[in-house]
Amino acid sequence: MSENQIKTDAPAVDLEEMAARVAQLEARIAEIEEVQPDDRVSLVVFSGELDKVLAAFVIATGAAAVGQEVSMFFTFWGLSALKKDSKLAGKNLFEKMMGVMSPAGTKQLPVSKMNYFGVGAKMLRKMMKDKNVASLEEMMDLARELGVKMVACEMSRDVMGISDDELIDGLESGGVGSFLGDSLRSKTSLFI
Amino acid sequence: MSEIHFDKALDTSGLNCPLPVVKARKEVRNLEPGQILKVTSTDRGSVKDFQGWAKVDRKVDLLGQETETAEGKETFIHYLQLVS
Predict the structure, then answer these.
(1) Does A131 touch chain B (CB under 8 A)?
(2) What are phi and psi of A55, to 5 degrees?
(3) Which of A9, A66, A192, B14 is the right S-S partner for B53, CB 3.0 to 4.6 Å?
């Protein structure tokens, strides 16, 4: 039997149908790729306690280190961690009260349990230092270095009367839309 | 002792989670593709941490892990390769 004969004996393949099928599959794959989450992790930092903010930054730096895009969305009490200062000028009475009663920066954050007017927080910091665990401040620096995006919630800033010059530099400003824009494309979203 | 050849070494002894992974990440990105980084850690959690990293990061392969015990203290060694 010659080679020619083998070819003619083979079942007929409809090339056009095949091409249409491939095109269909390619379109379907493109569709699926579109809705696939990115290598992304999104965190809402709602709490303003040292231990909880620390947990958020451990996850954020860890995720960034293993190659994930990370966004942290700071809202309500979480904003305390982003303060560098507390200013009272230009605030109304309630805003001033809020400013005085809430921590102005990471150094003043309480712990969520056994705080005892700040003694607990000092103790935890000392224990962490003794065990060679990075401090919250070091962790925040690392997060920046690793390109973690930090967003300050515009609405809660507005409610609490927190001005730009009370916050550390390098923050973005945004609302629920900015959070959802990131979290809906994320493989993991956490509320801390 | 293994025979894994490495191009660079990083000692993270004494450091705790998440620092071994964070420091290793910085170092591994300085490698040329194909090169190998040896990371030494005293953090017991680092064994699973490096495994998890290699699982999610396509840029990094974990070629091997070892545990060495000296004077009752354990040291954990991880070999990472930059893929691309």
Answers:
(1) yes
(2) -60, -40
(3) A66
